[in-house]
Structures are given as structure tokens and as C-alpha cells.
Amino acid sequence: MRFYLVQHAEAKPETEDPERHLTERGREEIQKIAAFLTARGLSVPRILHSGRTRARETAEILAQALRPPQGLAETDGLGPMDEPGQWVQRLRESQEELM
């Protein structure tokens, strides 16, 4: 099992955009990363994200390139203030590759 942890791409500041959409630079950077991963043959069954706008947009760009068969899924425990330790057991129990 492999776990690929990807932080969201550059987002607009909250003072400019309360929803914090990705900046144009952020979109370009994550598209380059997605192309790199695709060229290396990376394959994951699905991509998980926190549901925050910047994380969802990052996941959508990755999914366009990687085409995970199970698509995207919003899940708990991936927010900026969430305790990362909760993933230890979840990862131990998982047999699939996760991003």
C-alpha cells in the first residue's frame, strides 16, 4: 500500500477570496505535478480531499490527469486543524493505494 499526501496548490488569500480558490499560479503548478505523475505511470484508485475549495480544486486537477477509476471523494480528517494521528489506523487497515 502506498499513500501519497499532496498539499493543496497555492490559493488566494482569504481577504481577497473567502472561499480560497486556487490562484492561476497554483493551477499551473498542480498541472505540472499532475503531468509529472502521469508520465511516471502513477495510478491510484481514487483521490481523497478535505472538501475545502482549494483542496477540491487541487484534487480535480490531479484527477483530470490521473483518471482514478473511483473518482474523487471528500473525507473527514484532512482539514488543516485535524489530528493526523487518526490516519495511522486507517492506513494500516487499507489495502489500496491512496492519494
Automatic annotation (TrEMBL):
Residues 9-22 have a biased composition (Basic and acidic residues). SUPFAM superfamilies: Phosphoglycerate mutase-like (SSF53254). It comes from the Bacteria. One of its GO terms (cellular component) is cytoplasm. It holds the Pfam family His_Phos_1. GO terms for molecular function: protein histidine phosphatase activity. InterPro entries: His_Pase_superF_clade-1, His_PPase_superfam, SixA. Residues 1-22 are annotated as: Disordered. This is Phosphohistidine phosphatase SixA.
